Amino acid sequence: MRIGTVTIRPFAHILPALAVLAFVIACFVVHHPLLYGNWTASMPEGLYLAAKRPLDLGTIVLVPAANLDHCGLEVPPLLLKKIAYTAGTRIIVNKTGLFADGKLVAPRVAPIGINYRGILTANQVVVLGESPRSFDSRYFGPVSTSGLRPVVPLITW
Length: 157
Known about the structure:
Layout lengths: L1 E2 L2 E2 L6 H17 L4 E4 L7 E5 L9 E5 L13 E8 L4 E4 L3 E4 L2 E5 L8 E4 L4 E5 L8 H4 L2 E2 L4 E8 L1
Antiparallel strand pairs: 1-2, 3-4, 4-13, 5-6, 5-13, 6-11, 7-8, 7-10, 8-9, 11-12
């Protein structure tokens, strides 16, 4: 449509928004390497963006489920967790829960999981979710840092 010397294209302003929406939806369905959609309660729901960050305390990471003992549970291919303990921490995982340096920090709520006792090495971390019902290191123990992908929240709800 042409008005005077200005051409108006109906819906032209909507196309970029639709492209972004399609990308976001695709990321929820097929977990894009740069963007991850979290729908679980173990961490805040929302979109997380891949980031180049060191694997320090508090860093949010994607944990490949293929590297874990699933304890007979069906789990998604990637788990979103936060690094809670790093090298040098004395860790015990048993039927009661996860102990760090002798203190119970994450009790188990389900009667599943491995037993572990040791001091974390430079290539191991303990990851925890923010929910007390999260499937995390209280069940599968420490994880290797290889394969962990740091992410930052883009938008959460």
